[in-house]
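Justification of computing resources. Each target in the renewal requires a structure prediction run like the one illustrated here; the chain below, 927 residues long, is used simply to show the kind of job we budget for.
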Amino acid sequence: MSRRIRRKLTRRGQEKVDCPEVDECLTLDERGIVDWTRLPDDTVIQLFSCLNYRDRASLSSTCRTWRNLGVSPCLWQGLDLRPHKCDSAAAVSLAPRCRNLQKLRFRGAESADAIIQLQAKSLCEISGDYCRKITDATLSVIAARHESLESLQLGPDFCERISSDAIKAIAICCPQLRRLRLSGIREVDGDAINALARHCRGLVDIGFIDCLNIDEVALGNVLSLRFLSVAGTTNMKWSLALQNWSKLPNLTGLDVSRTDIIPNAVLRLFSSSPCLKILCALYCPALEQDANFVSNNNHRGKLLLSFFTDIFKEVASLFADTTNKERNVFVEWRNLKTKGRKMDAVMNWLEWILSHSLLRIAESNPQGLDNFWLSQGAYLLLCLMRSTQEEVQERAATGLATFVVIDDENASIHGGRAEAVMRDGGIGLLLNLARSWREGLQTEAAKAIANLSVNANVAKAVAEEGGISVLAILAKSMNRLAAEEAAGGLWNLSVGEEHKAAIAEAGGVKALVDLIFKWSITGGEGVLVRALAGHVHMHERAAGALANLAADDKCSMEVAIVGGVHALVKLAQSCKAEGVQEQAARALANLAAHGDSNSNNAAVGQEAGALEALVQLTRSPHDGVRQEAAGALWNLSFDDRNREAIAAAGGVEALVALAQSCSNASPGLQERAAGALWGLSVSEANSIAIGREGGVAPLIALARSDVEDVHETAAGALWNLAFNPGNAFRIVEEGGVPALVHLCSSSISKMARFMAALALAYMFDGRMDGVALVGTSSDSNSKSVNLDGARRMALKNIEAFILAFSDPQAFSAAAASSVPAALTQVTESARIHEAGHLRCSGAEIGRFVTMLRNSSSILKACAAFALLQFTIPGGRHAQHHVRLLQNTGASRILRAAAAAATAPIEAKIFARIVLRNLEHHQIESST
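Resulting structure tokens:
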């Protein structure tokens, strides 16, 4: 197929793309189907230009023609390696495409070492992030291999291993250098700067940022210099700087932000530097604390950009009458039809140094800047996000993500700042950047959206503007950094109940589950073996988002359907990072919390290794991990099969050890440790094992907690344990009676009081007496126990508990009348609504029935009161309890108790109500 090719220029945004044009139309094959491999060359190249580099390389493997077109120089003029791992092997494979590469961005020392393998000898611009480990040797070789270099930028993090020797090598090897910006150099000595002055005659822009020492005298020798930034640089000798920099014939812009410059130095610079137009001095405390300087607006026609000046007004003054609205000065400058090259250079430099300084200030989060951020800082960042300079856009987006955060540990953000971004249209702008094909912009925009979404109002705006779909798509990205930030955004959005369904509908659940597997090392059949250390944050965010989503019944089913149980269990098994373990355990706990409405509880228990992993996590040194693992085991123990499997996996020993070790832990951990033992102790075999392992004493200690949730779960566990006579005696031996009596009489939780009363009733219904004669302790460890005194104390408090639910007038009316309304009134006053969630076994129901025949009138009343709670219509397990009562033939015993002349009135009335409940359920069953 012959083609006539000529060159043309097309535009994509602000970037010119040189690509071929052909005079040929796409034709159909003999079947009438489009053959995409026969697209015209210009169409293919235009298509490639809209893709990221990974996709360009993938499409190049489609056919020989596309492979040849895929290496066209116009597609590889710029390369951003930051989102990808770039080692020597990757660089070698990229080398054939990069011979005409003009611009390169990379991240980290490994990528820096690999750059040399690209063989991009005509490279003009290099920009590197995370350069702490880059050495003089690496940087010198990069300079030696790229003699055409015009711009070199390393930062914003510190280049700790780079010295003046590397700067001298750059000066000698790169004579065409026009821009040099380095961050965090320990010292830039005179020899290095003088080498730049001698060899780089076109050097117009220098940034020695956050450096420790700079030779101020030598900087005065770089006569070509137009723009200089020493922001954040310490140990500056301002007298030498004034003396030498004022002689620079072309110095137009000077950035001294975050330095200790004093007012007198600023005034002298303005008066002695004839060409100086702009001085940027953001966050310079010595200036901001001088009231006279702050109030002085006469700067001899020079622009001073600071926290106490109107930055927009100052910049607008550069354009005389060309700007109508000062706050839109950056937008209007970009839209000017006729631009001067010098003014463009000034504005581009201004955008760069503002984005850099605002980000640095946001990172340090100094106090007292609320007024600045709200009045102009937030809007300034939004203006910079519209820059044509990709690096400025990224820094501004990162600045937005950073300046709203006021507490990293607790993920707290400043509500006023977040809503200021929202009011100024920042959400739509961030979402547009997140849709960009530029992977760096995707990442930083997603990070900003994630942080801002901690605020509920912003989260609502993000959802309304389609942000959930954008984040769900980014979570599937091959750009690891963007996927990580998108997962964080979904995590924050999923906190809101109103967003959970929308995340699921947008495919967010599957994207999060797939993300866990995609960014992991896998073994046979795709099984995750271990999480990569570099992906820890990603997995934590994905698991955290799934944990929030799993709290919703419908979403929890979606998590299970798309393989979430398997993914979360593998994380819990394999990853050693605290945050990942905690969120994976929390997600499994939430999945298992819907036992009454879906089958996820059983599904988690049946997943290979799930219970063993959670048991192991209860031994973690981190309280958060132990808490969530115990919570998961608690929820899982509601399933009979899971309960026994947890015990078989060593859960009894692990949870008893946890309860023993958490006396000084958080209430959340204490509650879940006691709750998990409560769940396991439903099984009498487990209950006996818990007693033998020493679980009684720590549960008694937790029952003494002042925290309602803690002593409530401890009371539940002790109630179950007390069912066994041996455990009952252990509770007495360990001093549990006073603890239970205190709960029974004083807890603000009706449930805790109820379960404490039932535990005491179990202990003193006569079954423990035989055990007491033998004892459970060895002779050497036997403890003195006053059973009679303990029994009297227990019965007295059980009676007081029952009477607390007695209304004498209602009881008298119910005793004198058979009208249902009278019994209903007693029921409502006696009802403990939470007790309807308790599920008793047949043996427990039988024990209460037997207790109705006990010689103690107090125990009779307690048994009738308990059966009333368990059979009230509408209770979750009422039908179950009614069937158990019917199987034991309890009706005859209940009638006898209701009619007994010697029984207390409470026992009689409660027994009558239980009989009525049985009749109610019988009628319901028959209809």
